[in-house]
């Protein structure tokens, strides 16, 4: 269900007030039998004020765009870790996933590394296994994150069947050359540049921990 925009009334108020004022001034002029000089000056001033209100309202529509509409992701909330991970890696992944879920718009995330899923947390998708598609493979190959700002617009969205089916936005953040951190949001175009930098830093920390664990295994 879409979240209502709480600022819509505020943004439309100048438009409504300006339009209503203009109509009332026009009606007053038409119904007046005789127009005095003072009334004429008042009408001119009123029309100018109404025009300014309408202009302000139009500017507000552009300067204050609507916030992205969020939805309730379909699925059950859960927290799954690969059981054979050492405690240090479990602690690292638990901490990192909690930070991402509580400090960004992420509502579902998956850590895929060396061909298997190490973590699923948040709202879980219907599929447990991850089969990296073209988008995930590109992120790993190019060592650059891929941000799908509105998932429903991309034909390749079918590869993300391990995320909730109504996921709105996705970031595929490489974990070195061996894995990827996949994050799903409940609103399109909702990750900020600050969020992206935060996610990149968290991913580097996860990759360092996992690389050390696998090398020492």
TrEMBL record:
InterPro entries tied to this protein: CCB2/CCB4, CCB4, GAF-like_dom_sf
Transmembrane stretches, start-end: 12-32, 44-63
Keywords carried by this UniProt record: Membrane, Transmembrane, Transmembrane helix
Pfam family, one: CCB2_CCB4
Record flagged with keyword Transmembrane helix: yes
UniProt keyword annotation of Membrane present: yes
UniProt-recorded name of the protein: Cofactor assembly of complex C subunit B
Organism: Laspinema palackyanum D2a
The organism's taxonomic lineage, starting at the top: Bacteria, Bacillati, Cyanobacteriota, Cyanophyceae, Oscillatoriophycideae
């Amino acid at each position: 269900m879409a979240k209502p925009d709480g600022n819509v009334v505020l943004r439309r108020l100048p438009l409504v007030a300006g339009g209503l004022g203009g109509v009332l001034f026009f009606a007053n002029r038409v119904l007046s039998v005789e127009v005095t000089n003072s009334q004429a000056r008042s009408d001119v001033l009123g029309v100018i004020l109404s025009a300014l209100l309408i202009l302000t309202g139009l500017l507000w529509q552009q300067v204050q765009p609507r916030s992205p509409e969020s939805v309730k992701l379909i699925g059950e909330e859960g927290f799954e870790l690969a059981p054979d991970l050492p405690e240090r890696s479990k602690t690292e992944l638990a901490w990192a996933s909690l930070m991402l879920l509580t400090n960004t718009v992420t509502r579902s995330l998956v850590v895929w590394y060396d061909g298997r899923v190490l973590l699923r947390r948040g709202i879980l998708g219907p599929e447990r296994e991850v089969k990296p598609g073209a988008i995930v493979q590109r992120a790993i190959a190019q060592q650059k994150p891929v941000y799908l700002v509105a998932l429903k617009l991309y034909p390749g969205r079918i590869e993300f069947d391990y995320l909730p089916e109504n996921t709105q936005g996705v970031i595929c953040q490489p974990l070195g050359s061996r894995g990827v951190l996949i994050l799903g949001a409940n609103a399109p175009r909702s990750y900020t540049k600050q969020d992206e930098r935060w996610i990149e830093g968290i991913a580097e920390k996860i990759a360092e921990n996992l690389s050390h664990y696998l090398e020492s295994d």
